[in-house]
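Practice record 12: protein with LXCWX6NK.
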Amino acid sequence: MLINVEDARRAARRRLPKIFFDYIEGGSGAERTLAANEADFARWNLRQRVLNDVSNRDLSTNVLGTQQPLPFMLGPVGFLGLYAADGEIAAARAAHMEGVPFALSSFSIASIGRLRAETAGPLHFQLYVLNDPTIRDEFIEQALAAGVTTLFLTVDVAVTGSRERDIRNGFRAVTRITPRLALSMIRRPRWCLDLMRGGMPQCGAVAHRPEFGHGALAQAGNLARRIETRLSWADVAWLRKRWPHRLVLKGVLSVEDALAAREAGVDAIVVSNHGGRQLDDAPSTIAMLPEIVEALGGSLEVLVDGGFRRGTDIVKALALGASGVLLGRAYVYGLAADGEDGVRRVIRHLAEEIDTSLALMGLTSIAELRRRGHEALRERT
Ligand SMILES: Cc1cc2nc3c(=O)[nH]c(=O)nc-3n(C[C@H](O)[C@H](O)[C@H](O)COP(=O)(O)O)c2cc1C
Ligand SMILES: CCCCCCC(=O)C(=O)O
């Protein structure tokens, strides 16, 4: 039974070949930041308050200029179409059915055009700048043509973190299906039948470029190697001029960078350490959130991601000043476990937990929670 995110995680592990489950689950180095992202939520308690009328509750809130029924969205995660058939489309549909935005990763199986053609709701796009400006420009043009209004520029992957699970499994070194890989896939027959029905998955953005190789795994390795290492604040300024809609910087984890992001004219930042997949021993996002919010003093919208597995985690981030939360692994487990339905169940579970927590905290809305701020919490000493 899929009641919470942990149930979805276990089901995803049963369903996926190890190489993919490990890719989703893993972090970099000793995985200390990965662990801290989840563990540090325990540094905060929620204040229980009683005898308030909480019969009418409202979870809606404004995130990135749009009123949405829930205070979170599905963040960009690469290669969703490898974890479930048409994974990007399934996740986007689930998001739209539940009224939350979906952000498509640059590194996706479904192209932006296909996603737009097959889904109707609001669409965000996440940009990885590759060391080939023609690909960067293609991404921007496709995003504009698809009616994307919010672009997340990911800036915490100057190089890819040392992900030891992937190194062991040869994730980024796959150029062809070896007997070992074939065996690990055949051991997961449901996944195999589902995924291979449409032929060998390809990464939508580079399927037409033979230099990226054939098949999503070879393309993934080549894409990762082509991420622009020299990306700088000048590129942010360039993109600010080029992109006419909302621009969000994803991967800010220090006060200095948050202030520089505001200076560069972005519309919002995502406090993120990439789910503990990049700089190991970087602090958790929930630990950094308060000082970044305080330094900005309301002058820039702040979103956050990293380790959110419970509705109570989301409540804490909102009380600490985030306008919204991006889900990562939490929804991907649901997707791998049971496609669109699995994602919807994860979204609903988190929404129910937020709703219950608010009521037991004596609060009736996200607006009230955000007004109450730190006073809705108690820091554990
Ligand atoms: C399997 C996987 C792939 C990811 N791919 C991308 C990506 O393509 N672009 C991006 O900006 N972030 C990517 N991320 C990072 C997420 O957007 C997010 O920052 C992170 O997952 C949050 O941590 P959480 O999964 O613990 O919630 C990826 C994360 C995972 C787990
Ligand atoms: C194959 C590694 C690609 C790194 C970029 C995708 C991503 O953001 C992540 O895996 O994390």
